[in-house]
Amino acid sequence: MNGDEQPYQRPDRLSSVPDVAPPADAETLLRAVARGDEAAFTRLYELVAPRVYGLARRVVRDPAQAEEVAQEALVEVWRTASRFDPARGSATAWVFTITHRRAVDRVRSEQAALDRVQRMAPEATQTPADEVVEQATARLQRQQVRRCIKTLTDLQREAITLAYYGGYTYQQVAQLLGAGLPTVKTRMRDGLIRLRDCLGVEVSA
Amino acid sequence: MSEIHSLAGPYVLHALDESERETFIQHLRGCETCAAEVAELNETVARLADDAWSVPPPALRDNVLAAVRRTRQIPPARPVRVRREPTRWWRHPAALTTAACLLVAALVGGATWTVQEQRLRDERATAQAAQQELARTQAVLTAQDATVRTSDVAGGGKVTVVASPSQDAAVILLATHSPGAQKAYQFWLMEGTTPHSAGVLAAGQGTATHLVSGVNAADAMGLTVEPAGGSASPTLPIIAEIPMK
């Protein structure tokens, strides 16, 4: 060390962290949400909202009701974030499970009431077309799901998609497919096992 | 694979009605391997949401964020201890008579708790014995030929006997007040007029699920109050009596 060396100069200001938010995964965000972090919730919203809304829309069909279901589900994610347990599955699965449950509840209470009068109403105009924006990763995931669904037998595929996207009980699915109850529930389970293996799904508990 | 376990598919797809859903959740609580499979299938099902991608209306974001600002979050749950195996119980619900069904429901909680307590004390052998007793109790309650008889206990409470000739066993359910700290309830099997002890409860214990074997020769089941530890022959009066034939 020698005396001629420039003394250490304190920078005028500390350089700020780059303005780009670091990529955060859903689990990290959800943990922050559980601590009441609204900014983290906003970012989680950006990450999951298209799938939450899309799923609600697919199940309940009516755009206005889908919007309500999506809102209920996302607020429930905020409200119950502290109950998320990473040992039992991923954060996104947790969010979509809540969403699907809400959508199915809506459809079942609807069916009990009127035969979906709303379906006859003209579609709300402010809903943008599905194809407008689509993230590359979302497209890839979507392609993978579609490819894996194709590996199922017809009965497995129909049983699973009618229940999941249609919101039907397995008894209703059996009626629609003209198949026996034991067959339908078994096809649902072994079809999902095949999907699981195709998608490479694991739960690291 | 048990019958009930095939409901795993419909369960993760939210395709069960409420009562089946409850039954399946009960099943999951007692079966770790099932819980692991359900976790994976649940994860798989959630991936189906990827294919439902759709641009949300812009108003959704504002509405959700506004709702979040006025919504209080719930506190974390206390950690739940994972229950192990004992709920094999539910494997053959179809075979249950209606009356026995209710009894099973009432029993599961207590029996599971008993097994848990024993595990906490790390008494493996005892726990195993308790599980065997649980399995035998289940066999009696679910037997096709099970009969259910109930009697009032003098002084208050009820005693119910579920007997199965094919199992040569009976399950006695006692629900009454404590006999007092130094006293114990004792069950008796009566062959004609000859009583044989069918078990003594712990001193002060007023509720119990008690399995008795070798009941086919018995004409009746009786209940008495005895000094703690029980007696060789019944102390009168008999405070409840149930015919077995």
UniProtKB/TrEMBL annotation, chain A:
<dbReference type="InterPro" id="IPR039425">
    <property type="entry name" value="RNA_pol_sigma-70-like"/>
</dbReference>
<dbReference type="InterPro" id="IPR013324">
    <property type="entry name" value="RNA_pol_sigma_r3/r4-like"/>
</dbReference>
<dbReference type="InterPro" id="IPR036388">
    <property type="entry name" value="WH-like_DNA-bd_sf"/>
</dbReference>
<dbReference type="InterPro" id="IPR007627">
    <property type="entry name" value="RNA_pol_sigma70_r2"/>
</dbReference>
<feature type="region of interest" description="Disordered">
    <location>
        <begin position="1"/>
        <end position="21"/>
    </location>
</feature>
<keyword id="KW-0805">Transcription regulation</keyword>
<dbReference type="GO" id="GO:0006352">
    <property type="term" value="P:DNA-templated transcription initiation"/>
</dbReference>
<keyword id="KW-0804">Transcription</keyword>
<dbReference type="GO" id="GO:0003677">
    <property type="term" value="F:DNA binding"/>
</dbReference>
<dbReference type="GO" id="GO:0016987">
    <property type="term" value="F:sigma factor activity"/>
</dbReference>
<feature type="domain" description="RNA polymerase sigma factor 70 region 4 type 2">
    <location>
        <begin position="142"/>
        <end position="195"/>
    </location>
</feature>
<dbReference type="Pfam" id="PF08281">
    <property type="entry name" value="Sigma70_r4_2"/>
</dbReference>
<dbReference type="InterPro" id="IPR013325">
    <property type="entry name" value="RNA_pol_sigma_r2"/>
</dbReference>
<protein>
    <submittedName>
        <fullName>RNA polymerase sigma factor SigK</fullName>
    </submittedName>
</protein>
<comment type="similarity">
    <text>Belongs to the sigma-70 factor family. ECF subfamily.</text>
</comment>
<feature type="domain" description="RNA polymerase sigma-70 region 2">
    <location>
        <begin position="44"/>
        <end position="111"/>
    </location>
</feature>
<keyword id="KW-0731">Sigma factor</keyword>
<dbReference type="InterPro" id="IPR014284">
    <property type="entry name" value="RNA_pol_sigma-70_dom"/>
</dbReference>
<dbReference type="InterPro" id="IPR013249">
    <property type="entry name" value="RNA_pol_sigma70_r4_t2"/>
</dbReference>
<dbReference type="Pfam" id="PF04542">
    <property type="entry name" value="Sigma70_r2"/>
</dbReference>
Automatic annotation (TrEMBL), chain B:
<keyword id="KW-1003">Cell membrane</keyword>
<keyword id="KW-0812">Transmembrane</keyword>
<keyword id="KW-1133">Transmembrane helix</keyword>
<dbReference type="InterPro" id="IPR018764">
    <property type="entry name" value="RskA_C"/>
</dbReference>
<dbReference type="Pfam" id="PF10099">
    <property type="entry name" value="RskA_C"/>
</dbReference>
<keyword id="KW-0804">Transcription</keyword>
<keyword id="KW-0805">Transcription regulation</keyword>
<feature type="domain" description="Putative zinc-finger">
    <location>
        <begin position="3"/>
        <end position="35"/>
    </location>
</feature>
<dbReference type="InterPro" id="IPR041916">
    <property type="entry name" value="Anti_sigma_zinc_sf"/>
</dbReference>
<dbReference type="Pfam" id="PF13490">
    <property type="entry name" value="zf-HC2"/>
</dbReference>
<protein>
    <recommendedName>
        <fullName>Regulator of SigK</fullName>
    </recommendedName>
</protein>
<feature type="domain" description="Anti-sigma K factor RskA C-terminal">
    <location>
        <begin position="97"/>
        <end position="237"/>
    </location>
</feature>
<dbReference type="InterPro" id="IPR027383">
    <property type="entry name" value="Znf_put"/>
</dbReference>
<dbReference type="GO" id="GO:0006417">
    <property type="term" value="P:regulation of translation"/>
</dbReference>
<dbReference type="GO" id="GO:0005886">
    <property type="term" value="C:plasma membrane"/>
</dbReference>
<dbReference type="GO" id="GO:0016989">
    <property type="term" value="F:sigma factor antagonist activity"/>
</dbReference>
<dbReference type="InterPro" id="IPR051474">
    <property type="entry name" value="Anti-sigma-K/W_factor"/>
</dbReference>
<keyword id="KW-0472">Membrane</keyword>
